[in-house]
Amino acid sequence: MPDLEPLKKEAALRAVALVESGMRVGLGTGSTAKYAIEEIGRRVQSGALTRIVGVATSEASDALAREVGLTVEPLDPRPLDIAIDGADEIAPNLDLIKGLGGALLREKLTEMQSRRLIIIADHSKLVTQIGEKAPLPVEIVRFGFLSTVERLRQIVPGGRLRQPGAQPYVTDNGNYIYDAQLRPGSDIAALERELKGTLGVVETGLFLGLAERAFVASPDGVQELTR
Ligand SMILES: O=C[C@H](O)[C@H](O)[C@H](O)COP(=O)(O)O
């Protein structure tokens, strides 16, 4: 398995180059977004960027941002100038699956409000159709979760409650996650509507029509994709 870390970092640096002083910045979650947060922190510490306010998409990113010296504020109704985040699948039209790290709800809340969503990833995340590689995370409420899982199985038969150990995985919002196995080529816009209309579902990891640009790094260099 080749080391993807330098590639993730390279993609992150390309995105951070778009951040300007005075911006309100959505801070993504995950092992790629981490490089972006660290780089923004470095630029703030060196004085290259000033008056940056970060809005974090998870408790982990909030903690990291503070650690690297960023000012972090909660999400409020003001728009963000830019958000930088990783993804689990990137389709050619920049539709995404996100949430394998469990942060999909806060990510969607934050990134819907951003003027620009920039995705950073290594080339392993590229797919020709959504559902090819990653499961689709669906955040569900804990109360009656077994009933919600049954309802979800009627819609997407393949899938399971995320349970890494003895207990189900719990999100920052105190919810559970159902990881659905999609059939590539299915109508994902219709699926999104159906899942969002399902009792017990809080949010899905489908990010459709949200990303403006993606920096995708491979051993041949960084590819810049636009919608
Ligand atoms: O919940 C997690 C987020 O959606 C991440 O952005 C996504 O899982 C990609 O993470 P990584 O950069 O670690 O592959």
TrEMBL record:
Keywords annotated in UniProt: Isomerase
Family annotation (Gene3D superfamilies): 3.30.70.260, 3.40.50.1360
Keyword presence, Isomerase: yes
Record GO biological process: pentose-phosphate shunt, non-oxidative branch
CDD domains registered for this protein in UniProt: RPI_A (cd01398)
Pfam families: Rib_5-P_isom_A (PF06026)
Main enzyme class: isomerase
Gene Ontology molecular function: ribose-5-phosphate isomerase activity
Residues at the catalytic site: 107
Swiss-Prot/TrEMBL catalytic activity: aldehydo-D-ribose 5-phosphate = D-ribulose 5-phosphate
Assigned EC number: 5.3.1.6
Positions with a binding annotation for substrate: 29-32, 85-88, 98-101, 125
Signal peptide: none
Record HAMAP family: Rib_5P_isom_A
Quaternary assembly: Homodimer.
The protein's role, per its UniProt record: Catalyzes the reversible conversion of ribose-5-phosphate to ribulose 5-phosphate.
Stated family: Belongs to the ribose 5-phosphate isomerase family.
Protein name in the entry: Ribose-5-phosphate isomerase A
Gene (UniProt): rpiA
